Amino acid sequence: MEEQKTTKLGLVIATVATGLLAGLAAAFLSKVLDLTETFFLNFREDRFHPVATMTPGLHRLLAVLCGGIIAAVIWYLMQRRASHPASVSKAVNGTPMPFWRTMIDVTTQVFYVGTGGSIGRELAPREAGAMLAQHWQKWVSHHPSLQIRGDDRRLLVAAAAGAGFAGVYIAPLTGTMFCVELLYRKINGKAIAVAFTMSSIATLVGATVKGWSPYYEVTDKAFSLKLLPVALVLAPLLGWLGALFRRGVSFASGRRATTSKVLWQLPLVALLTGLVAGPLPQIMGNGRGVAQLAMNTRTVNESVIILLVVAPILKALVTLLTIRGGAYGGVLTPSISIGACLGALAGIIYAQLVPGVDLAQCAVIGAVGFLTASQQAPLMATFMLVEVCHLNYSAFLPLAICAGISIAVSHRG
Fold first, then answer.
1. DSSP code at position 224
2. Other CB atoms within 10 A of residue 366 CB
3. Is 148 exposed, middle or buried (0-12, 13-18, 19+ CB in 10 A)?
4. Using CA atoms in the order 81, 87, 92, 94, what is the torsion angle rounded to 10 degrees?
5. What is the pLDDT of residue 8?
């Protein structure tokens, strides 16, 4: 009985301490991104300026090319000495994550995104959080009253990974769902208490750097019931395409350049990214620019439609090539960008039948459906878009319907 009380005490202290550590890691990585964008692209990212559209095209090309060369050298040297740090899922199950190797890796991930590399940056704070949770367990191993035992060790690492995400995107519910839905894969009172508390603490710390503004700007936060047909009709397509993108990511990851090949493959992909970014700068970075492009759709003409068709195709291809070329990073925000364009296109069609439909809200529905299928996480996807867009509670109905149908179709596929 005494051991159970001790474990609970250790878990409470570890939850608070690891939440603070994950938040500090998230704040650090956010600063790395800001400094990298300022130095290489001469701009400061926010929801109104998600990409460096005002930076000259040649400047953008040289920035991402330099970023690709530097990141390639770092990852090559890391992998030459030892294998790449363990994934978050492996860390949850006990595979050690070395402190300095992990910190170098996550910093490099964010650095490459900051120079314009086409990949998500959300993997970095998750890995940093998981690594810090493991090291907290090492630090307290000689103090019986603070030790974490049994399955609580898995929970702490999974919750810390979610907290790292929450600290970057200021989304505590999303961090909680990421923990229980994707990593820990159990939903009970203890899991919710630990994950939600940790993500909330990390959010408070991360907000000291990022502030409380929405990550994506959606003008009208209240969703209408007339959007339900969009969710119902679009969800099956999003489920199939999201599952297809997921398989593409798996294929590219399984064939990622890890030897000396990364020294030329990643710079080559970076060069391609810069060339594509000449006419389409929104392709750079984690996908925020493409997603906001879709959510900013107000007027419809031929050029807008072409842009909404071409942008997600190019974003998907360049992101997969980036992974294949040897880069590490996430695919959550690229998935949001692809789905948002598909949703906006569906909204354009639907608006011919039901005038007055908000295309930005259609883009959000598309983002949730595609993200659900690509990550196999309907709860995380739904809460993420609600939080990062600061949506009204009325958004839950169309988003949940879209996520539910999408996950069902993706499973059948």
1. P
2. 31
3. buried
4. -30
5. 79
